[in-house]
Amino acid sequence: MFRKAFVYILMLTCTWWITADVAPAADGGKLFIRECGTCHQVGGKVKPINPADKAGVVWAKYFKRDRHPVKLSTIATSDELTSILEYLQQHAADSDSPEAAAIPKG
Ligand code: HEC
User: Fold this and answer.
1) Whether residue 57 has its Cβ less than 6 Å from ligand 1
2) Is the Cβ–Cβ distance between 16 and 63 less than 8 Å?
3) Given 34, 42, 43, 103, which is the most exposed site by the fewest CB atoms within 10 A?
4) pLDDT < 50 stretches in the chain
5) Whole-number pLDDT of residue 105
6) With a 6 A CB cut-off, is 7 part of the ligand 1 pocket?
7) Which residues pair with 40 in a beta bridge?
8) Does ligand 1 lie within 6 Å of residue 78's CB atom?
9) Whose CA is nearest to atom 41 of ligand 1?
10) DSSP characters over 49-73
11) Count of H-run helices and E-run strands, the chain
12) Which of 32, 39, 66 is the best mutation target for the ligand 1 pocket, counting ligand atoms within 8 Å of the beta carbon and taking the most?
C-alpha cells in the first residue's frame, strides 16, 4: 500500500518536473525555429531573421501592429505568438543576451 502511494507520488513529481522544465522562454525559442524558421532560413524562401535584429520594444510593435507581410495569425496561434514574442524580447538587440544566430545566416 505504502509502496504504491510512493510510486504514485514519484510519478506525479516527475510529471511536474518535466512540464515545469518547459519554461515559456525555451518554448518560445523552439516555436520561433519551428514556426518562423520554416520560411526564414539560409537558402530558404526568405532571409534568416533573429531576435537581435530588433530592440525589444520594436518587436512588440511589430507584433502588435502585425507589420509582417504574411498575417502573423495565419502562422501561429496567439498563445504561440505570445511565447515567440517573449523569446524575441528576451534576446533582442538591447537585451542582456542578444541572440543573432538562432537561425544561422550561413
Ligand atoms: C510563410 C512564410 C513566412 C513565415 C512562416 C514567417 N515569415 Fe517573416 N517574412 C516572410 C516574408 C515573405 C517576408 C518579406 C521578405 C523579406 O523581408 O525577406 C518576411 C519578413 C519578415 C521580417 C522583416 C525582415 C526585414 O529584414 O525587414 C520579420 C522581422 C519577420 N518576417 C519575422 C517573422 C517572425 C517573427 C515569424 C514567426 C512568427 C515569421 N516571420 C514567419 C515570410 C514568412
Assistant:
1) no
2) no
3) 43
4) 22-25
5) 81
6) no
7) 46
8) no
9) 36
10) --GGGS-HHHHHHHHHTT-SSS-GG
11) 4, 0
12) 39
5-to-9, 10, 15, 17, 18 alpha-carbon distances in Å: 6, 8, 15, 18, 20
Nearest atom, ligand 1, residue 84 CA: 38
With a 6 Å cutoff on the Cβ, whether 84 touches ligand 1 is: yes
Which set of grid coordinates corresponds to residue 53?
A: 535584429
Checking 34-38 for CB contacts under 8 A at 24+ apart, the result is: 35/75, 35/76, 35/80, 35/84, 36/75, 36/84, 36/103, 37/103
Q: Would you list the domain boundaries of the chain?
A: 23-106
Q: How many CB atoms lie within 10 A of CB 81?
A: 18
Residue whose entry in the numeric block shows the C-alpha cell 505570445: 82
> What confidence score (pLDDT) does residue 14 get?
53
